[in-house]
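Priority: low. Protein: Copper transport protein ATOX1. Input follows.
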Amino acid sequence: MPHEFSVDMTCEGCSNAVTRVLNKLGGVQFDIDLPNKKVCVDSEHSVDTLLETLGKTGKAVSYLGPK
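Result:
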């Protein structure tokens, strides 16, 4: 089930950081919506794991709910 997160991204570098941490986690498919500062992640990982992983970018992250 896809989950939607709000990530405080302001530039291409921010979205690259999100891509990097999610690819390192593995087992995820994701879509980054930079203008709206949203990331939709489809994964078997728990929401807590995804939040923790996205938090490694150093950006403010919040869970918006299932998509």
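The first strand starts at residue 2 and ends at 7. Residues 21 and 53 are 6 Å apart (CA to CA).
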